[in-house]
Please model this.
Amino acid sequence: MIGWLRGRLAAKTPPTLVMDVHGVGYECEAPLSTFYGLPELGAEITLRTHLVVREDAHVLYAFASEDERRLFRALLKVSGVGPKSALGVLSGLSVADFLRVLAAEDTAALVRIPGVGRKTAERILIDLRDKAGDLGGTGVAFVPMALGAVASPEQEATVALIALGYRPQEVVKLLKAAGDDAGSTEELIRRALRAAAS
Model:
């Protein structure tokens, strides 16, 4: 198992990033919560990782904090939740927000996440409600909290929302609802997700 990677950020196109670790390029998939904190290309970063081995591929998932990785692993243990759905949950909700959803047993908040249906949302709440104390609280971050853009915030937000499962037509509407004064990619995505939830 690969526990973490430390290296140079070589590429980032949500949901995929590439880290150059001593000349070896590790391609990882990551939730938007991790992308929010990525520095400019070429900067050194350290990310927690989780390796999923399938018959046709070995896929490495990367996370900015131990709390994110812990929640990802907990979600994978829920029947009907695969890595793509787990990434969707982490992209749509911070760990703290997820814990609030869990405490309130807010099925509707989970159903609003692309790829999560009502039955899956109910299973997540049932399976994880007794594990809330194990899912958060370390607050350990592994990347600098600065975002260096190589594309415009609108372009990055568009790519990220499509990667989350929204159709291109929906993304256009969501970004219009987010407004032109959002500023950063992170804020634009947050506003778009709030618009989708309302």
Q: What stands out?
A: The radius of gyration is 16 Å. Residues 117 and 181 are 33 Å apart (CA to CA).
